[in-house]
Amino acid sequence: MVQPAPETKADEAFDPEWTAPSSTLEDGLFSYLENEPLWLAHELTALDPAAIAELNAGEAVDTLEKVARLERWLSALKAQIVHRVGTSMTERAPSGVEHRLASMNAVSETACVLNIPEGTAGFLLNESTALVEDFPTSLEALSSGTINYQHAQVIIRESTGIPADERAGYEESLLRVAPDLTRPQLAVRARRLREKMCPEAAAERRTKAEADRAVWLEPAPDGMAYLSAFLGAEIAVAMFDRLTRAARAAQGPNEARTLAQLRADALAGLVIQDNPSLQEEGILSGIRPRVLVTVPVLSLLGESKMPGDLEGYGPIPASIARKLAANAPSLLRLLTDPVDSAVLDVGRRRYRVPTDLKTYLRVRDKTCRYPGCNRSAATADLDHTVPWEDGGRTRPGNLACLCPKHHRMKHEAGWSVRQHPGGVLAWTSPTGRNYSTRPEDPPAAVHPDAGQASASARVSGRTPGSAWHLPPAEDPPPAEDPPPF
Questions:
Q1: What is the pTM of this model?
Q2: CB 438 within 8 A of CB 425
Q3: Do the beta carbons of residue 82 and residue 121 sit within 8 Å?
């Protein structure tokens, strides 16, 4: 059973060697922790699975409440630390390009340390800055456990358009009701309050929101994915209405698909074939792949159920891969060394990467190879790990896919990288932290006796069946001036 914290000081209850501060930072942190959060952490870490299993319903709920209290305090502390990560990297950077690069480094370091996408890290930095600089009362309420982090997010995000001199009143009004509301309930209150305080700002907020319109793809399990769009409400409603009308028109006694399934098929038909075809085979026949679909040869022949790989998504069932390959203008064989999977090496003959080698690198890397980045390799730059002007060769062991943003950061923002066998990239950040990224299993990396190979369906007009060719033993001198990277 979890007991209430005793009314004693921390140094009277714990080993003094553990509590003794060894620096100014530890001294300040210890003073901050000396009260309730420290006792909560001590109590909760003393719980083992056996003790948890013995809790009755009341004790379990009480313990959960204490976990939530500690979690809120940690969220407040985390916000302050994340804010300091940002300011520590940007406060000495002058305005302009250097300040932008410093800001990008702050986002990247935060993303790498927390193992989250850079977009999420950017939101976290913005929210932390807002809490510390613009909503200090909310930060205090979060630290004391009065509100949770989701409450704080609502207060921040719904404040768009409220003048700085009215922000305190907005914040105070919401903090009075937040402890008794869920996040969605508080969001409704916040929007109503904002509209009441600043009705004239609605058009400005709409204009700002329109700048963020986008469409994005999110992989889902079992060969499925979510295709989402952020649009003006009137446009989204009109699109949904058209899909609904097409779906209802297809309903009948012999139609087994649900209305939701028919809407999805109508959307696929409209986007792929410019008409709301609701025949699945008709929709698939309209797909002309402009991304790579890598298919094991035995799966392509129907003799294996090994999945294919759809660029930008991942594994798809062999049956779907065969249908896509059937519509591809050509097939490209990716032949590799049976021992180490090494492919074409054009050495120092030229900087430009041959088309076949580009395709191999897209299949190998799949995404940008910067830590945490998931942008597709299809739109990435091909970067020489050791720059060409420093003697770097144009070969797989010295090339990697980097999106334009991270390509720039490698060369201008203080990051360095080394490439190890197997395409493993070892990155070092400006603060000296080390991160590694590695490709998935390389294409066709099997023993020749295994009877496996890979074929990639692609849209270009390359002659089917052509293979890799080895470079000459002696590299002739470069035929062109070396580019900048």
A1: 0.66
A2: yes
A3: no
